[in-house]
């Protein structure tokens, strides 16, 4: 299906595009034809998923490939617990697709609206000091290259390319299939609890090491942290999920409905933000439950925001976080969104933010109707001073020269891009900035 391009906007309203044409392929052959047709017309072509990246990584000024029809299971390797999914499969659909086989993804982020291809291509990571991000769960891929041919990368073919293709920023080709290394289904015992920020910071490294999945949120203008601790249990462990009414109150009424109102009020009258933040801390958290892994990992986020996130060497978390707190106080900003801190194990993916090092992540947000520039740029300088690498799908200002210094395999990735896409069919302004021309 092909149609003229209209205006496209991402979820956070931080990126827009008006593609010349939009194509909705229903299969791999249709993707190949679209790439070949774009080449004949001299148009760049980009795949777009759910639009949940805050950077311009999915902006398609030429041909926009909408992968909404490229969904579902291709095949299952029961013996090795591997499942091959079509690239446009949304993350929220994956648990249902894996359930008949008694499988689950080993880790997830806290939002599940993205497509599987979009999530791995931008470095979505979740949390867990012993667990790696989503792209590290990829053990095979099929992509359409710039000449419209298929490239298979797995443990039998082109294996050496997997560390680049698994997290490829959409720069190497159009992903059409991804093979995920799954694990037996499991449940999570979740404990969400508020507590003094100062006390948590004293033991945060230990908390992250002891838990399977640990993260915390800090609302600026308060001295309280909301910690979230998840421990893995077998699939047949007794479940004690949140009552439907209680979950609705916590995650819809308070976290989305009331919070949307308070963000709007805070945007109009910044002076009320500290009081609102203190109220939010009192109303959220302090709950314990056990449920299927995906129901604990993910939450519905209805309040639009914009986000910047940096990965730091885990040992640099505390000084960077302390500098961030001091910055907010010194500048007198009124920040209504919490700061989020998460963790990930080291991996070997060339452009992974956790490449070669155990990592801690600091994410900052602003309500989508507020200009984040001054806040984000000041925070970015702190992150860079502490060895930070920016999340590819979130807002940052770095270019290829700055990123090359932070990724030991950066030039290897660029050389592979030169080989697979010499004419830059898959390029856009964002990729030109972060990878060079």
TrEMBL record:
Residue ranges of every copy of the FAD-binding PCMH-type domain listed in the record: 15-185
InterPro entries reported in the protein's UniProt record: ALO_C, FAD-bd_PCMH, FAD-bd_PCMH-like_sf, FAD-bd_PCMH_sub1, FAD-bd_PCMH_sub2, FAD_lactone_oxidase-like, Oxid_FAD_bind_N, Vanillyl_alc_oxidase_C-sub2
Keyword Ligase: no
Signal peptide: none
Gene3D superfamilies for this protein: 3.30.465.10, 3.30.70.2520, Uridine Diphospho-n-acetylenolpyruvylglucosamine Reductase, domain 2 (3.30.43.10), Vanillyl-alcohol Oxidase, Chain A, domain 4 (1.10.45.10)
Keyword Signal: no
Region entry Disordered, spans: 1-24
Alphabetical UniProt keywords: Oxidoreductase
PANTHER family reported for this sequence: D-ARABINONO-1,4-LACTONE OXIDASE, L-GULONOLACTONE OXIDASE
The protein, known as: D-arabinono-1,4-lactone oxidase
